[in-house]
Amino acid sequence: xxxxxxxxxxxxSGTQYEFEVYPWGTKFKPLGGVYLVLRKExxxxxxxxxxxxxxxxxxxxxxxxxxxxxxxxxxxxIAIRLEGSEQRRFDIETDLIQNYKTSCNEQ
Length: 107
Description:
The chain is an alpha+beta fold. The protein has one domain (5-97). It has helices at 67-72, 86-97; strands at residues 5-10, 16-23, 33-40, 46-54, 77-82. A 5-stranded antiparallel beta sheet has the order 1-2-5-3-4. A hairpin with a 5-residue loop joins strand 3 (33-40) and strand 4 (46-54). The longest helix has 12 residues, at 86-97. The termini are far apart. 28% of the residues are buried. The model has no long low-confidence stretch (mean pLDDT 95).
């Protein structure tokens, strides 16, 4: 499935990261990446609910340990940035978490 949108987010370091946005429930290949759980607002902008990383994007996000929080805050989309290096995924995730106050990372 083709991405529905693209967004750029900025880490605490000032580094900008491009993500491809897909509707919630999209199935992905078993590749590593950083992901953002999003809620699309009426204005068309996205609110980041959660920032994470995984070695396998094909895992079902409905079974995520924060799935209840995603539902409670009205998740509508997921954005992904493919990244094969585990260390690089952790670095990007940390950089973004340090810059965004998300509803589901903080609980």
